[in-house]
Amino acid sequence: MHIARTLPELREHLGRFQRPAFVPTMGNLHEGHLALVRQAKPLGDVTVASIFVNRLQFLPHEDFDTYPRTWDSDCEKLRSAGCDLLFAPDEKALYPEPQTCKVHPDPVLADILEGHFRPGFFVGVCTVVMKLFSCVQPRVAVFGKKDYQQLMVIRHMVRQFALPIEIVGSETRRAEDGLALSSRNGYLSEAERAEAVQLSKALQAMDSALRSGERDLAAIEARAMQSLKERGWQPDYLVLRRRADLQAPAPGEPLVALAAARLGATRLIDNLEIDL
Ligand code: PAF
């Protein structure tokens, strides 16, 4: 695996390839990321991953400074997953001057849910993803469905700017008990880790209620919020939304359940597509 730290190094190495397949990450890699790399591999003639902890997508009180930087094990994992090229710029290389030109995604999609609770988050994500796309110039890029809204916001950005990049969504990888794999799971204490699966259980309960014929979405959402609160969580949202655009659904439209909740100091997100 070749490692490029600067844009000229990246461009030089990419020059002989036509169809880069790209997996952007912030490092602290787990099996979910590696699955994205493996999925990307047959889709291009060179498999590129990036590691860049993007300051722009963190709020001032969030974990930018403490976000785990696990360089050696990340490189080892990427090598074993078959990554050919790792782009790992430092802040000066990616943002040589203050990044005052930013991508503001459609607020209808980006200012709800995650964007509501983390204002500016998707501006930061879209800005860095646009910049990474411009550096790597991939033909295809793979993103996890675990960050469901992020995937939708990026798809929308790519469509609106007519970027010649196919965006592939990859199924969420889960631990044996059902907890969605996430870099932030590493923040959980042993007791919290045992409890954490309740987030996906709450989504499954919403799914079961719908499957058993219940159609009062507000009541299903309220029960899910209450069940987590009673277990000591601080939920931001547990909602049922239209899968197409994450807005309030009309009867019969395909749904996705989305959740974000804090367990102790750790904020976890998860989602479940519901097929009735
Ligand atoms: O999902 C992530 O890890 C990040 O939001 C991304 C897409 C790498 C942008 O920093």
Topology:
Elements: E1 2-4, H1 7-14, E2 20-25, H2 31-40, E3 46-51, H3 71-81, E4 85-87, H4 91-94, H5 107-110, H6 114-117, H7 121-136, E5 140-144, H8 148-160, E6 166-170, H9 190-196, H10 198-211, H11 217-230, E7 234-242, E8 255-263, E9 266-274
Parallel strand pairs: 1-4, 2-3, 2-5, 3-4, 5-6
Antiparallel strand pairs: 7-8, 8-9
Bound molecules: pantoate.
Describe this structure in words.
- With 276 residues, the chain is an alpha/beta fold.
- It has helices spanning 7-14, 31-40, 71-81, 91-94, 107-110, 114-117, 121-136, 148-160, 190-196, 198-211, 217-230, and strands at 2-4, 20-25, 46-51, 85-87, 140-144, 166-170, 234-242, 255-263, 266-274.
- The protein has eleven helices and nine strands.
- A six-stranded parallel beta sheet has the order 1-4-3-2-5-6, with helices on both faces. Strands 7-8-9 form a three-stranded antiparallel beta sheet.
- Helix 2 (31-40) links the parallel strand 2 and strand 3 (46-51).
- The protein binds pantoate.
- Residues 24-26, 54, 57, 125, 128-129, 147, 150 line the site of pantoate (PAF).
Give the integer mean of the pLDDT values: 98
- Find the structural class using helix and strand composition: alpha/beta
Order of strands in the sheet with the most strands?
1-4-3-2-5-6
Bound molecules: pantoate
Question: Helical region count?
Answer: 11
Largest sheet: 6 strands, parallel
Identify the overall geometry.
Answer: globular
- Rg, rounded, reads 19 Å
